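Box 4.2: Ligand-aware structure prediction
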Amino acid sequence: MASELGDLSGRVALITGAGSGLGRATAILLAQRGARIISVDLMFDSAAATLKLLVGDGHGAWCADVARQKSVDEVVEVALEKFGRIDVLINSAGIAEGMGATLDRDLSHWQRIIDVNLTGSFLMCQAVARSMRDSGGGVILNLSSIAGVIGLPRRTAYSASKGAVSMMTKVLAAEWAPYRIRVNAVAPGYIHTPLTEKLMDEGRLDMDAIMRRSPTGEMGTAGDVAEALAFLASDQARFITGVVLPVDGAYTVYGAPEDAYPGVLGHDRG
Ligand code: NAP
C-alpha cells in the first residue's frame, strides 16, 4: 500500500552534490518528509554543513569524487555498512562550463565535464543499484538539464553530458524495472544556485537575454526542483519510471520567434 502523500519516513536517501544548490535543497526537503539523508559531496565540509540544516536524526555525511570509481565504491560501501540499505539515490553532483566556442575547447575540458556529469552518475547508479536489486528495489533520480534537451550553442560538453544522462536514465529504467528500481531524471531550466551564481558573477550568463527567452520571466528556485525530485522519490510516483521531467517554466517548449516574456523582468522572484 502506498504511504501518506509524499511521506518518505524510514527511507534512506543518498544524495551526491548534497553540499550545495539543488542537492542541498533536496536533502533539506527529503529530511522534512522523513527520510534519513546520506549527504555526499566532493568536499567533506560542504557535505557536513548540509547536515546542520536537516530536521530529524540519523543522517550522515561523506566526501567522494563521483568521477572516480574507487571513491564511489568506497562511499557506497561505507553508507551500506552504516545504514543497511539505500532506498533513494539522487545524482546531483555536477559541474558546468561557461560558454565557449567549441573550436577553441581542448580535450581535457570535454573529458572533465563528461567524467563528472555522465560517468559520475553512471558509476553511482551502478554501485547503488546492486544493493537496491538485492534489497528489493529503490528509486534513482538523475539531474539532466534543459541543455540535454535543446541545443545551446557553445555548451557542447555540458549539453552532451546531460543529453547522455537523459538517455542513460531511460535505458536503466527499462533494464531495472524487473528489479523494482525506478529510474527518472529531472531537467531543470535556469535555477538560482551557487552554480549559476558563479556563471553570472563571471559575466558568462546574460540574464536579461535568458529572462526574455523564459516564458515565466523568472529563474526557478532550488525548491522547485527539490519538490519534483521529492515527488518522483515518493510512492505516489510508483508507476513512473524512465521519464525526464522538465522543471523549466516552459523554457524548452517555447518556440515562437518573439521574446517569450513581455513583462518587466525581475530575475529571481524565488
Ligand atoms: P552546485 O550548487 O554547484 O552543486 C553541485 C555540487 O556538486 C557542488 O557541491 C560540487 O562541489 C559537487 N561536485 C562537483 N564535482 C563533484 C564530484 N566530482 N564529486 C562529487 N561532488 C562533486 O550546482 P547545482 O546548481 O546545485 O547543480 C546540481 C546539478 O543540477 C548539476 O548536475 C547541474 O548540472 C544540474 N543542473 C543545474 C541547473 C541550475 O540552473 N542550477 C540547471 C540544470 C541542471 P564543489 O562546489 O566543491 O565543486
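In the box above, the bound molecule is NAP. The mean pLDDT is 95.
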